[in-house]
Amino acid sequence: MTALSLTTTDPLEAKSDVLVVGAYAGTDGPVAVDQIFAEAVSAAALTGASGKAGELTLVPGDGTVAAAVVAVVGLGPVEKFDAEVLRKAAGTTSRALAGRSSVTSTLGLLDLSSAAQGHLLGAYVFDRYKTPAKAPVATIALTVERNDKATKATLRSAVVTAEGVLLARDLINTAPNDLYPAAFAERATAAAETAGLSVEVLDEKQLAEGGYGGILAVGAGSTRPPRLVRITYSPAGATKSVALVGKGITFDSGGLSIKPAQGMENMTSDMSGAACVVATVIAAAALELPVAVTAWAALAENLPSGSSYRPGDVIRHYGANGEPGKTVHILNTDAEGRIVLADAIVRAAQEKPDFLLETSTLTGAQVVALGNRTMAVMGSEALRDRVAELAREVGEGGWAMPLPEELRDSIDSSIADLQNINWDRVGGMLVAGHFLSCFVPEGLPWAHLDVAGPAFNTGKPYGYQGSGGTGVPVRTLLAVIADVAGTAG
Ligand code: BES
Ligand code: MN
Ligand code: ZN
After folding, report:
1. If pLDDT is split at 50, 70 and 90, which confidence band does 487 have?
2. Are 188 and 278 in contact (CB under 8 A)?
3. pLDDT at residue 443 tops 80
4. Which of 59, 67, 397, 416 could form a disulfide with 374 if both were Cys (CB 3.0 to 4.6 A apart)?
5. What angle do CA 315, 318, 324 make, to 5 degrees?
6. pLDDT category, 425, cuts 50, 70, 90?
7. With 80 as the cut, is the pLDDT of residue 147 above it?
8. Tens digit of each residue's pLDDT (9 = 90 or more) over 331-375
């Protein structure tokens, strides 16, 4: 990972390869955020720079600057400037400066946390299978006015948050032949134990003994058996608890209800929810948030074979406290996320958390409804709205969606408690939300974050986001936990 440091050196005197300075878009061209950079910004203007958000212009360092190159990054019109504009500008800059060894950035003078996160997230490249043509920028020194305790703490929490996002991205980007349920469980265990957290992994035998009929059914078609991972962070003195549940389909072929070939390769990202809840609990611990957090990763590989679960099967879900679990008539094996999640939600709720947040790449309908950069949030009203708002605040994008009453009985079954789909194409995202709601105990505040679109960038890099796993919604989940702790600042 790119290393960040703090510096109080006058930026004009910083002897880095590159000095990063911001410029707003004024009516007559770019306007330097600080007059001391006016010369470099004028030089950028001569080559056509306007200061529009995300624009990046490299100009040679002149007599007033010690750095060899000045990178002038556009921040858009000053009245539209916000934390996300800054994160994106920092991310774009990091991506463009790959291959450079030392960079000094003055973007942190505007908002240290956002600049640091944008720089780190933008610098990330996934290099497990291929060495990138240019190495990520090695070190970025962030200029600050005072390098005091509060400044250091701000940087540290930004770095911990970014590290959480990058852990999730690494898991998501790992190919499914290398990241099957047991491999995911091992990596999650190693990361969590390093962070001092306690971990429990149920293997297929223990899942059978426990009656986890949903996770077992979805995993039945693969030679690589399913797992349920629990990671617990319980700080002394915590008065509130949050359960995080993540969909961990390490590959979703659709099973016997097989998907079309084109685009199936993207279903390597179908464990994004699980990756994000694992990364979140680890980051929450590193941030020492005073809230108990338990993450649940429901892991299975959905493949067609002679041992697969079938359309027509009736399965029985996990039942809490010795009660029989609900039965579900499977009509489509490709609606598998809700099946593994139902077991995990019941199990997580058994521990009586104060809040339950579940996240999943659950429906193609989410992408149709909100596109690739806005997650859908459903669930109990107050928590749903709080989560959607926090998602927008951290720059992940979120929108509250309803669970309309009239869609609920479309998943009633004549032979079981529920069926896993209806054959009506309307409101597929909401129907999935309804299905999950049937497994949430009455009175437990819960939210369902459908990140089918936002979890994985199949397009070009932009802002602080490269191609592949995004790590959405790690920053939203952390913001919710911080908000529950009352420490959001
Ligand atoms: N993992 C998919 C949803 C998905 C689609 C995620 C596109 C990311 C991008 C999920 O398991 C799925 O296949 N859902 C079906 C449900 C349907 C059968 C009711 C879908 O959305 O088509
Ligand atoms: Mn599916
Ligand atoms: Zn899926």
Report:
1. low
2. yes
3. yes
4. 397
5. 85
6. confident
7. yes
8. 999 999 999 999 999 999 999 999 999 999 999 999 999 999 999
Torsion of CA 140, 144, 148, 152, to 10 degrees: -40
The alpha carbon of 335 and the centre of ligand 1 are apart by a number of angstroms equal to 6
Domain boundaries, the chain: 3-144, 161-487
The answer to whether 259 is a known catalytic residue is yes
Put simply, whether the predicted model's pTM sits higher than 0.90 gets the answer yes
- Average pLDDT over all residues of the chain: 97
Instruction: Point out the catalytic residue in the list 52, 156, 240, 259.
Output: 259
- How confident is the model at residue 64, as a pLDDT? 84
For residues 452 and 370, is the Cβ–Cβ distance under 8 A? no
- The radius of gyration computed from the CA coordinates of the chain, to the nearest angstrom, equals 24
Angle, CA of 101, 9 and 156, to the nearest 5°: 70
Q: How far is the CA of 108 from the centre of ligand 1 (A)?
A: 40
Asked if residue 431 has its Cβ within 6 Å of ligand 1, the reply is no
Q: Topology of 161-487 in CATH?
A: Aminopeptidase (3.40.630)
Residue 251: exposure state from Cβ atoms within 10 A (0-12, 13-18, ≥19): buried
- Which of the following CATH numbers is that of domain 3-144: 3.30.300.130, 3.40.220.10, 3.30.1360.120, 3.80.10.10? 3.40.220.10
What gap in Å lies between CA 301 and CA 333, rounded to an integer? 12
Q: Which candidate, 318, 291, 302, places its Cα nearest to that of 233?
A: 291
Question: Is 29's C-beta closer than 6 angstroms to any atom of ligand 1?
Answer: no
Buried b (16+ CB within 10 A) or exposed e, 85-101: bbbbbbbbbbbbbbebe
Which residue's alpha carbon is nearest to atom 22 within ligand 1? Answer: 364
Q: In 303-435, at which residue ranges do the beta strands (DSSP E only) sit? A: 314-316, 327-329, 355-360, 375-379, 398-400, 418-419
Report the percent of the chain where pLDDT is more than 90.
98
pLDDT at 488 exceeding the cut of 80:
no
